[in-house]
Design brief:
By secondary structure, this protein is of the alpha/beta class. The strands form four sheets. An eight-stranded parallel β-barrel has the order 8-9-10-11-12-13-14-15, surrounded by six helices. Strands 1, 2, 3, 4, 5, 6 and 7 form a seven-stranded mixed beta sheet that branches. The chain is built from 24 helices and 19 strands. α2 (about 60-70) links the parallel β2 (about 45-50) and β3 (about 85-90).
């Protein structure tokens, strides 16, 4: 996403919130809180009482009853004369103060007032949505201490800062089970998120384009059921479809190659080809039919760098761009045309308003469009002048592998310190709270995105989503670190311990996982065009590690000192291996202790083990290097058999490295597949595309095909290491040396690409 988001101020509130200071955790923080000095108990004789405007079984009543029972083991009485939690809806009963969004009528529908006393609780709202949000706040507020349940005496007046609060759920590289998607909607609603933007791509059964459908895909009935389910929680499911760029999932298939802008590139569609519109309109209709009851449709016009530049046998955009005056105006024509089709079919289009569109062409856009991002001062002002409302876009997971950088790795713990990064949740909080666009644009919402390009597990998203949702509801307060601590309490419940340290360790482990390897230009892969970088060409890079040198076959001499050359890498590997021990201890301590979301920690354990496998790889490379040095020393002393033994130890270690890698992959697959459909090339009578959409920009075609199956992409860089050839070369040197000194040769072949072996015979012999 090529945005330019300006931050006016990155400060934090000066003190903790009044609720947090009293031991209560609420996300988002309510707008106005007035607390009395005392807390009060609620007991089993408390009941729900429906007042004016509240029907039996309303969503708010269900949340109060089910939420208190599920989260606090507190079951309300069904009748009697005990104190009541009274629910009422009266127009104008929930007042509002200052807010960013100018649509006060919509904000009022989401406002509520909560009065808390020992004699009873009154929850009042202007509309059902506000009553629902007040019920969520009440459920979060209850504090259990021993056998007692407590609430603070006081009054809360609350309303959102913006009407539209969105999270992005990216299914482009996997597909969650339907019950997992429902759980995600419930979690979103719990943090007062009211839009769940879902990118399914080929994981949806497009009736208009059956050739696109992957082996596992959601049916229209399933997506409609998910949409209906979301409405019960005041969460709108918003379908998301890319075009004209980022459509590799379409153009990589032979059936649609004719729609390419350039014959050799599957990144972007030809925006002047009538067949492009016929395909997209059919897919639009499929998604509209499966999300009846939703208002919006996310028309992703993201990064269409090449629009208006093609002039070849399959696409003549350049001619049309010249007629209109520029590629930017061709982009406007495409956007207006597709958005108008959506409007004519009952949907309001949210689009990405950015380069290659130029600010001077914004007046040509339809004024009823919604821009899903804020871009730059010139663009923001032009959108506002045109009457186009905007959403503050934030990104809590750009391209962090395995786990978001919720805590930042110190540069002193990087092999090659780079530009650094920001705490993802704090960054999201600041971008929503303090964006300069608040003064420049007509803001109606905020969206927190977590991109799935690298195939992360969605369980890693939730801290960023919760903190972002809080900033969208109540910008600037409380401190994002307080929000983080509140999240741990709310998300895991009682029994969770040292969660901030657990998240810090997992963040830094994942960052070292990413930075512990070298990145080198590839001379084998073709130059890249498009993607998220601009036009290019770009030189692709590969992640790699230096392997120890192969000894000579005569005297087993080594060229270079591998351990000295990699001393810093090894020093940090040992440091992080110790911290991985601490992380796993915290995970095992919390797994049986937390009340809620235990599976979340199981995913984290699998990620910790992937990080650990990388650290053990580095440690084992050090041991291999030592064994090679020992072989060299023994050969110099004419200790032929001892030299051979040292070489054999080094070769055996490589088998152990492969088996540890396979075990970590096996563990992750077993855990992640508890909530994912299998990633396979063929099932249910359907086949995946012959060349899947890249997870990263550097995959060779063979690696790309392999990454399509299972979770191999998580450790894909290891397969690119020339370890198989290294073993062959070392074994040949070893055997020539052994033959020269009348010692047995070593038989057998080593398959570095084997992903099935978890314990080789070599390991069994050692054990």
């Amino acid at each position: 996403m090529g945005i330019c988001l300006l931050v006016a101020f990155e400060g934090r509130p000066g003190s903790v919130s009044s609720l947090y200071a009293r031991g209560y955790a609420v996300i988002p923080e309510p707008q106005q809180v007035k607390l009395e000095r005392e807390d009060f108990r609620i007991a089993a004789d408390w009941r729900v009482e429906r007042g004016p405007g509240v029907e039996a079984g309303s969503p708010a009543e269900q949340i109060v009853r089910a939420g208190l029972e599920a989260r606090h083991a507190f079951k309300l009485a069904k009748g009697g004369g005990g104190p009541a939690i009274r629910l009422e809806i009266h127009s104008g009963s929930a007042p509002m103060g200052k807010a960013q969004d100018k649509d006060r009528e919509e904000l009022a529908r989401q406002a509520y007032r909560l009065k808390l006393t020992k004699d009873g609780i009154t929850l009042t709202a202007n509309a059902p949505a506000g009553l629902f949000y007040g019920a969520e706040t009440l459920v979060q507020l209850v504090k259990r201490s021993g056998d007692d349940w407590w609430l603070p005496e006081g009054e809360i007046d609350d309303w959102p800062d913006v009407e539209y609060r969105e999270v992005f759920w990216d299914e482009q590289t996997h597909l969650d089970h339907l019950d997992v998607l429902k759980q995600a909607i419930r979690r979103a609603a719990y943090f007062k998120i009211n839009a769940f933007t879902l990118r399914l791509n080929e994981h949806f059964e497009h009736a208009s384009a059956p050739a696109l459908v992957d082996p596992y895909a959601l049916s229209p009935a399933e997506v409609q059921g998910l949409t209906d389910y979301g409405r019960e929680y005041f969460v709108q499911l918003v379908p998301y479809l890319d075009g004209p760029a980022h459509v590799n999932f379409i153009l990589q298939r032979d059936e649609f190659a004719k729609l390419r802008e350039f014959p050799d590139e599957a990144f972007e569609m030809c925006s002047t080809n009538p067949e492009t519109y016929r395909l997209l309109e059919g897919m639009f209709q499929d998604l509209i039919d499966a999300t009846r009851g939703s208002t919006y449709f996310h028309l992703s016009t993201d990064e269409a760098w090449f629009i208006g530049k093609a002039d070849n046998g399959v696409c003549h955009e350049a001619q049309r761009a010249k007629e209109l005056g520029s590629p930017s105006r061709l982009w406007v024509e495409y956007t207006n045309k597709t958005a108008q089709w959506l409007k004519d079919h009952g949907r309001q289009a949210i689009f990405w308003g950015e380069d290659p569109m130029q600010a001077e062409d914004i007046p040509s856009l339809e004024p009823w469009l919604i821009n899903g991002e804020v871009y730059s001062p010139a663009y923001n002002r032009a959108f506002r002048a045109r009457g186009i409302r905007q959403i503050i876009y934030t990104n809590s997971l750009p391209d962090d592998p395995l786990f978001p950088a919720y805590y930042v790795l110190s540069p002193k713990d990087e092999i090659r310190p780079g530009e650094g990064t920001s705490e993802r949740a704090t960054q999201v909080f600041n971008e929503i709270s303090y964006s300069m666009a608040r003064q420049q644009a007509d803001i109606m919402g905020a969206g927190v995105y977590a991109w799935g390009d690298r195939g992360p597990h969605p369980e890693t998203y939730w801290l960023g989503y919760a903190v972002g949702a809080s900033a969208a509801w109540h910008p600037g307060s409380p401190d994002p670190h307080e929000l983080t601590e509140s999240f741990y309490h709310i998300f895991y419940g009682q029994g969770a311990t040292s969660m901030s340290r657990l998240y810090q360790l997992l963040s830094t482990q994942a960052q070292f996982f990413a930075t512990s390897w070298d990145r080198e230009p590839s001379g084998q892969l073709p130059l890249m065009f498009g993607e998220s970088y601009g036009i290019g060409p770009f030189v692709p890079h590969l992640e790699t590690l230096p392997l120890p040198p192969v000894p000579t076959s005569d005297y087993l001499r080594l060229h270079g000192d591998w351990r000295q050359e990699n001393a810093r890498r090894l020093e940090l590997a040992w440091k992080f291996l110790g911290e991985n021990d601490e992380l796993e201890a915290l995970l095992y301590t919390n797994l049986p202790a937390v009340e809620f979301n235990r599976y979340n920690l199981e995913v984290y354990l699998s990620i910790s083990r992937l990080c650990r496998q990388n650290l053990l790889l580095l440690k084992d490379l050090e041991t291999i290097s030592r064994d090679l040095e020992t072989a060299q020393d023994q050969a110099a002393q004419l200790h032929y058999a001892d030299a051979i033994d040292a070489l054999d130890r080094a070769l055996d270690i490589v088998s152990g490295i492969r088996d540890q890698r396979n075990q970590a992959l096996h563990n992750a697959t077993a855990t992640w597949y508890e909530t994912w459909f299998p990633r396979v090339r063929e099932a249910n009578g359907r086949k995946a595309a012959r060349a899947p959409q890249n997870f990263v920009e550097t995959e060779t075609s063979e690696r790309s095909r392999r990454a399509q199956v299972g979770l191999l992409y998580l450790i894909d860089r290891e397969f690119a290491l020339p370890f198989g050839q290294w073993v062959t070369d070392v074994q040949e040197a070893r055997n020539r040396y052994a033959a020269a000194h009348h010692l047995p040769v070593r038989e057998g072949k080593f398959d570095w690409q084997d992903t099935e072996t978890l314990r080789s015979r070599t390991i069994d012999r050692e054990l």
